[in-house]
Design brief:
The complex is a heterodimer.
Chain A: H1 2-30, H2 38-49, H3 57-90, H4 103-116, H5 121-145, H6 151-176, H7 182-191, H8 199-218, H9 220-226, H10 230-235, H11 240-262, H12 268-280, H13 284-308, H14 316-334
Helix pairs in contact in A: 1-13, 3-8, 3-11, 3-12, 3-13, 4-5, 4-6, 4-7, 4-11, 5-6, 5-11, 8-11, 12-13, 12-14
Chain B: E1 4-14, E2 17-28, E3 32-36, H1 43-50, E4 58-63, E5 66-67, H2 73-77, E6 80-83, H3 95-100, H4 115-127, H5 143-156, E7 161-164, H6 173-188, E8 192-197, H7 200-206, E9 209-214, E10 217-222, H8 224-227, H9 230-237, E11 241-245, E12 251-255
Parallel strand pairs in B: 3-8, 3-9, 6-7, 7-8
Antiparallel strand pairs in B: 1-2, 1-4, 4-5, 9-10, 11-12
Helix pairs in contact in B: 4-5
The chains are: A mainly alpha, B alpha/beta.
């Protein structure tokens, strides 16, 4: 009885979130310096589906600029929220964000190096992606080399150490970079932005995010056991060491592919899983889709604000921090169900 | 069906730090074995070794004559369940979800619990008299209820042997009695239970056999009435204790408080 009503509530919440998401997408599509109505959007999409693209400006703005950016925001938000939910469960700590193991710092170092070397955009993205994956791999190897009966603690500490090392390298490159040409690009990238997104970026990042998502969906029940700690999880019949490797790899892949195209966007992976947990509880079965829906909608809303509230683009990281920090404090102050 | 857990010539502890050695321990279905010993004598470490959570530092642990090291984690979990001390969960899982986690060893890698698993979890909750807690958050029930929920999870795990680490520690008096009562019922229904406790009265109340761990060795192993003597309690705990026989034949420990002499 209880279970059924729980499932009903979850279904209702999911439906509501999907409706809100669709509304935000519609809002984002019509908002911007080039004004268009929902009708214009519908006509342009209809034309593409039917006789091929119309030659109007609406088509250009929509398909070359807005829709890729909307897709990128949805992808980034969903992926960061999913990765955050994974890491929070894995490290049994609700204050953990997707960059706990240094993926952002590593990706940042990769991207900053690419900008410093004046490489083309796709190479900068490639550097960022590999930097993120490489850093987490290094952290994992380091932690594995240290024999300790608290493997998660060692992992987090190794992440902090390697992350701050990468941060130091980023600072060094900033000092060496050309202050008029490279430094603004570096700073902007480190604060996260979707302003330069092309549809190719989205097409490149989506498969990596999906590859990361598949094990999360398949192993979603076991994710719950991971949050009990290694000993209990082992006694319940699973192998937490191996599973942790899979989960870390999956969440890192998702985060790194987002960071590569959008820069470092903080707070989303930290705050969104909390809100999702408040709505549907900690069972990963429900938490994962809910967090992804909220994350996608939130990111798109914030990105739409980022490109409209001022004449110049506001970096995403600035907005997510301004919104995320107060929301997080509010969550801390009012939490009733535990985490 | 008899399931037997046996430790032969066991040494246990952590890397570079042996906690105990030369232990022979046996547990079969239907028994309640009580493990007594002072704080820090290694009861928890021994249990973790018996469960295969820590590798044996010497000797070996066998389940049904198979070395535990040769079994997969799910094979072990199908035979032997662990009831940790009631703890705070980080996330507010419902009691039903918490108990459902006990079903994991019976399902495939990618499976989520099905209807029959839910039914089994509900049965386990009912068996422990906490069916009404099913939809509550595990983080928002009392310590005694959490302990019972963790026992329910072990029942749902359908293992024939239970390892319970101080299930009565940090519980109030009423909950201690309730938990011990459930333990006796479970043994009566054919489970084998090894339980550690700080209270020799609990061993006198429910144990079919008592093990005493002292200074890293198995100091005594036998029937409660043979093992739990004033002399042994003096050696282990360093206090004077009398064993009194009640009118109904039950025995209890009566400490001799020095200040009252």
């Amino acid at each position: 009885m209880g279970e059924r009503s729980g499932a009903l509530t979850t279904a209702r919440i999911t439906l509501l979130l999907v409706a809100v998401l669709v509304a935000i997408v519609a809002l984002a599509a019509v908002t911007g310096p080039y004004p268009m109505t929902l009708d214009d959007v519908a006509v342009a999409i209809g034309a593409r589906l039917g006789d091929g693209p119309s030659s109007g400006e609406v088509d250009t703005v929509l398909f070359a600029v807005r829709l890729p950016r909307i897709a990128a925001a949805l992808l980034a938000g969903a992926a960061l929220a999913a990765a955050g939910a994974v890491y929070q469960g894995l490290f049994r700590n609700p204050l953990v964000s997707p960059d706990i193991l240094g993926v952002s710092a590593g990706a940042g170092l990769g991207a900053v190096t690419g900008i410093f070397l004046s490489l083309p955009v796709f190479a900068i993205q490639g550097f960022a992606f590999l930097g993120g994956l490489g850093t987490v791999a290094l952290v994992y190897l380091l932690a594995g080399a240290v024999r300790h009966h608290e493997p998660t603690l060692v992992l987090v500490l190794a992440g902090v150490v390697v992350g701050s090392l990468a941060g130091a390298c980023i600072s060094l490159i900033k000092i060496l970079a050309d202050p008029y040409d490279q430094l603004p690009a570096i700073t902007f990238w480190l604060l996260g932005s979707l302003s330069g997104i092309r549809s190719g970026d989205v097409l490149g990042a989506t498969p990596a995010v999906i590859v990361g998502l598949v094990p999360l969906v398949l192993l979603r029940w076991r994710m719950n056991l991971m949050s009990l700690g290694d000993e209990e999880a082992t006694a319940l019949g699973i192998d937490p060491r191996r599973l942790r490797l899979v989960f870390v790899a999956a969440a890192t892949l998702m985060t790194a592919s987002v960071v590569a195209i959008a820069g470092i966007i903080g707070w989303v992976g930290l705050v969104i899983p909390h809100i999702a947990r408040l709505m549907v509880g900690p069972n990963f079965d429900r938490l994962l889709p809910t967090a992804m829906l909220i994350g996608a909608g939130y990111m798109l809303l914030v990105d739409t604000m980022a490109r409209t509230i001022a004449t110049t683009e506001t970096p995403l990281g600035v907005l997510t921090a301004f919104i995320g920090a107060p929301v997080f404090i509010w969550l801390l102050a009012t939490r009733r169900r535990g985490w | 069906m008899v399931t037997r857990l046996r430790a032969e010539d066991l040494a246990f502890g952590y890397r570079g730090h042996e906690v105990g050695r030369d232990l022979d321990v046996e547990l079969t279905t239907g028994e309640i074995v009580c493990l007594l010993g002072p704080n820090g004598c290694g009861k928890t470490t021994l249990f973790k070794t018996l469960l295969g959570l820590l590798p044996a530092r010497g000797g070996r642990v066998l389940i049904d004559d198979m070395p535990i090291a040769s079994l997969s984690r799910s094979e072990i979990a199908q035979r032997i369940a662990y009831v940790p001390q009631a703890h705070d969960a980080v996330f507010p899982f419902t009691v039903a979800d918490m108990v459902l986690m006990g079903r994991t060893a019976h399902r495939g890698l990618f499976a989520t619990p099905g209807m029959d698993d839910r039914a089994r979890a509900r049965e386990a909750l009912e068996a422990l008299g906490i069916g009404d807690l099913s939809d509550r958050d595990y983080t928002r029930i009392s310590g005694g209820q959490r302990q019972l929920a963790l026992v329910a999870r072990a029942i749902a795990q359908d293992a024939r042997l239970l390892v319970m680490d101080e299930p009565t520690a940090s519980l109030d008096f009423g909950n201690q009695v309730q938990v011990l009562d459930r333990v006796m019922q479970l043994a009566g229904s054919g489970l084998g239970i090894i339980i550690s406790t700080h209270n020799p009265d609990h061993a006198l109340a429910c144990a079919t056999r008592v093990l005493v761990l002292h200074e890293g060795r198995l100091y005594a192993d036998g029937a409660p009435l043979d093992v739990l003597t004033p002399a042994l309690l003096r050696t282990i705990y360093g206090v004077e204790v009398g064993i009194e026989v009640l009118r109904d034949g039950a025995r209890v420990c009566a400490p001799r408080y020095a200040a009252r002499q």
